[in-house]
User: Fold these one by one.
Assistant:
Number 1:
Amino acid sequence: MSSRHVLTIDGPAASGKSSTAQWVARTLGWRHVDSGSVYRAATFARQQSPGTPATWTEPSVLSAAAGIGLTPVDGSFVPTLAGTPLGDEIRNLVVTAEVSRVAQMSGVRQWVNRVVQQAAEGHDVVVDGRDMGTVVFPDASLKIWLVADPWERARRRLQQRLGRGPSDEEIAAETDELVQRDAKDATQTVQARDAVLIDTTYLTQPEQVERIAALARSVASKR
Ligand code: CDP
């Protein structure tokens, strides 16, 4: 049996999975793989080819996604398209609106799962997404299910995006979008039965990172 450690962090949109996963990985000296960034990169790659989103078929997404790779950067991975690193463009409005539909294509899910497993291969890793603890790493040593109140998730996401405290109107609009995306993602967002639930609504980020890192250390020391 392999002695490597896999920590999965799953949960709804904007629950802080990726930033927490990255920070926990750094604290532990493990690798971090963000599966959502691969779904976003595939959607972005398809957006660069001709045709409106209504014409996006699974074969056309997979063909566009063939140009995607993952490059290791600072213990994490950055998606690349034709060798060029992708940054904030994978968070553009069209990608965010269409990624849930792209992520429902079974061939795309199989492809992302392979990419994520290859990046994680042979390393102690923290992986985050929607189904890491159920479908992709069902034998993970520790599974976290990260949730937070939708209003608080929307406030944090806007603070991160705008770099300032958002107004109540802005938070209300963002909350609607998050709740709609959660509904679209419902089938692929699955809480593992053996996951530890952490509600971060009233936690600071350092508190949630320390809580998860402490659980991971405790599990790792017992194996
Ligand atoms: O950060 P946020 O939760 O807003 O989203 P993300 O992690 O960047 O993921 C973007 C989208 O990818 C989600 O809305 C899902 O549609 C899809 N996704 C998925 O289906 N399965 C995963 N394991 C990760 C992401």
Note: The mean pLDDT is 95.
Number 2:
Amino acid sequence: MRTQIVAGNWKMNKTFEEADDLINDIVDFVKNHNLENTAVIICPPSVYLELATDFANETNLHVGAQNLSNYESGAYTGEISAPMLESMEVGYCIIGHSERRKYFNETNEMIAEKVNMALKYNISPIFCCGELLPEREKGNHFDIVKKQLEESVFHLNKTDFGNIIIAYEPVWAIGTGVTATSDQAQEMHYYIRSLIKEKYDEETGESTTILYGGSCNSKNAKELFANPDVDGGLIGGASLKSDEFIKIIQSIDD
Ligand code: PGA
């Protein structure tokens, strides 16, 4: 059975104290519940990663960054490198999020470099793909997602690809309160899985975890996660409140 994952993308939110409280609540929950086949990952802002990994060490909570540099080290003021993250025991990194594509001009090519950098330092990329609203309205959503996969992750060999988590995040659903319907999510996840099978093989396709992201919350999570090709979620807004995030974790694990 594929690993089911609930990952929280905190984006640029929370003060130190608020971050501390939220991590504590999640750690308490994870510690006291036997999550059978579900991994919980939190992706706080980078300044709180150490706080998170300190707590995570005591539990089976996992920690991810929200971004890393495509450079290894050097004079890149403000950037955070893969070796730095590895040295802090950060096991995951969101790469290719639509907000980074939009506000920081990240291209598929740059995202491919970041994916390579992450893998070189034993960090599993949570690779985000997804179409804009006009692209879906024109019926181009499958082609857009295919191109994102081809240009950013399909250059990997099978072993490296095995360390990737895919997150399908239709951009029109992110932070808008408009969620993809359960059928829309399943249809795209099935398509992504079939592309992986075509590119690699049946087994790789079957074992790749594909998350849904975009206005996922405690009310719609259960229905979304019940789809055969939806293996959990990348949660933004709803990961900022512990009770809401915990309900989402519970909706996948029961
Ligand atoms: P959202 O964000 O849940 O707030 O829509 C998801 C994401 O951007 O990863």
Note: Residues 4-253 form a domain with the TIM Barrel fold (CATH 3.20.20.70).
Number 3:
Amino acid sequence: MYNLYNYSLKQLQDLLVNKYNQKPFRATQIFTWIYLKGVSDFSLMSDISKDFRDILKKDFCLVKPTIFKKEESSDGTIKFLTKLSDDNLVETVIMPYNYGNVLCVSSQVGCNMGCAFCASGLLKKKRNLETHEMVGELLLANELLKDKKITHIVVMGTGEPFDNYDNVMSFIRICNDPKAFEIGARHITVSTCGLVDKIRQYAKEGLQINLAISLHAATDEKRNKLMKINQRYPLKELMAATKEYVQVADRRVTFEYILLKDINDTEEDAKALAKLVKGILAYINLIPYNEVKENEFKRSDKSRVHQFLDWLTKLGVHAQIRKEFGSDISAACGQLRAKVKDNE
Ligand code: SAH
């Protein structure tokens, strides 16, 4: 059985043309029914011939995950655990920004990147999410929002999206497709810990999608300790690929920088950071760290976070402090899942 949610329009066209001897417009018809009209019953797809509807019934399905547990914050943030068909759970978050509803999507069950501060990596990668499972996270979110819709996507949940590159790209194409979710490319952001070869590939996708890079330290000495990936792709290589991305994709890049008390939040760190990003079309998102009970890292004091922003600004760096959501519900990224696991 093929799950229709697994295919971008182009991929579905290829499948229908090559395997079923259909014309490419069949795929457009199906997309219109399932995404624009929300119809999942093949017998209602009236502009598709009876014969092909029978084939659809026999060979295709529209299966999506379910919501296992949901928490709502007083600020409107909704976190839920998406239950996949093999009972794995991943975290999905809806954040109500003033400019739209942002969905934070998980791309893997667990993660192998092993960043020292991150809760997601505590659970080693079990497997990649299939495209249809990420589409499922989005469909479930839209159902929860009822009359409102998700307007922005950030692939910043559990997992390293560039370690699941092809599935994530198909998902993004479905998000972006005018015959599906029609979310503007500029409203879609993928965040990576720094897989250099994939950054180069992403630059050439020909879409106006955004790239965020988790930096978190401005010297190899510090970054090696915080992020295992830095031993494979040190800062020199990461920065070279980033510059190439900015040039080839003709896009600004975002650097994410978690502020960890006494680890990377001094004036010296701010200077090193400013030096590192000098000359790159970038801005820096300063992230107040969400403490995780499984490690010792502490969040920088609020005054230090503002001070750090000030240092950067004075050094001519574009930076902002990321708005926090849902601080009254399982604050840290990855903690909702961890909480359920404890009770298992
Ligand atoms: N693997 C990707 C995307 C997932 S994490 C990446 O590394 O970019 C999304 C962002 O949240 C990353 O910048 C990550 O470093 C950050 N993050 C992880 N744990 C966090 C925590 N406890 N508090 C705040 N941010 C965290």
Note: The first strand starts at residue 2 and ends at 3.
Number 4:
Amino acid sequence: MIVLGLESSCDETAAALVADGRRVLADVVASQHEVHERYGGVVPELASRAHVVNVVPVLQTALDRARITLAEVGGVAVTSGPGLIGALLVAVQAGKALAWARGLPLVGVHHLEGHLAAVYLEPDPPPMPHLALIVSGGHTSLVRVEDHGQVVELGRTRDDAAGEAFDKAAKLLGLGYPGGVVIDRLAKTGDPRAIDFPRGMIARNTGDDFSFSGLKTALLHHVRAHGVPEGQALADLCASYQAAIVDVLVAKTTRAARREALDHIQVCGGVAANSALRAGLHAAAAADGLRVHVPPPARCTDNAAMIAAAGYHRLVRGDRDGLDLSATATLPLPRRARAGARGAHA
Ligand code: KG4
Ligand code: ZN
């Protein structure tokens, strides 16, 4: 079955065609980085408007690249949340219109379930169950993946997401948006030990939750005291800041994998494209006999191939949404009940 995936939850308008949840026939992403760059972050109303302009051309390009027509599509999967509400609605409405016009089954996909499915498009995906670190612009979560579409969240950020920590730092340093890519590049020639930034909630007794807002404040104080550096000093600052994020992610992820007795870890979401995180996790995992699976960088950031893959597994299970499917801005993952928590469900 060929599934059409549509994604517009943030600042990427994307359409993809994926056969049997495995084979990508077309994967088209129109990013709006130029629209938002001068604001140092995504402006929701501008994002919605750009999605409206881009959605049909992106869909047509996907069909052209796959050399198929809508008659060959067997189902439609759309990101229905979480995300920017006005942005989400564009793909949801486009998907519903197509499903209605062509009489196709429709399914709404959780954006993070989509990120988790990106690695299933790779030749050697992780077995079930496995541990996943989801690190994007809006989310930082450690989840136990029991099966396709069946996850339990072990921990999440209490304040900023890891990607947000990169983006806010880049904004403060005048490096543009999205910040992760620029900091990643500048950090390559910097010394990660130059400045000792705080590693939030890295201690063993902090559970699986994260916190990155203290790091952001530490950077603000550093810049107030020393100004925004240039040249080598800027590279050193970026490398030190990045190391503070990466150290926490690596320590907490490998610790959770050992505790949960899960030998396979997948990392997904935009920050999974970060070279220091990829290298750090591979090194730590190798030392522990764990295996790390990361999608290629273009499938770490938002795309619709991952939505089509996740949607495929839902459709074959018989999941269907009606034309009353709507977009939801906030959609938490099911969370593991804390031991001893009153009234908690397993
Ligand atoms: O998954 P994604 O495309 O959108 C959301 O669902 O949020 O993630 C975007 C985030 C941005 O915060 C961006 O700065 C970050 O991913 N990012 C990176 C890198 N590439 C993208 N962060 C660190 N290093 C990178 N190479
Ligand atoms: Zn995302």
Note: Residues 10, 136-138, 163, 166-167, 178-181, 184, 269-271, 273-274, 301-302 surround KG4 (ligand 1) (CB under 6 Å).
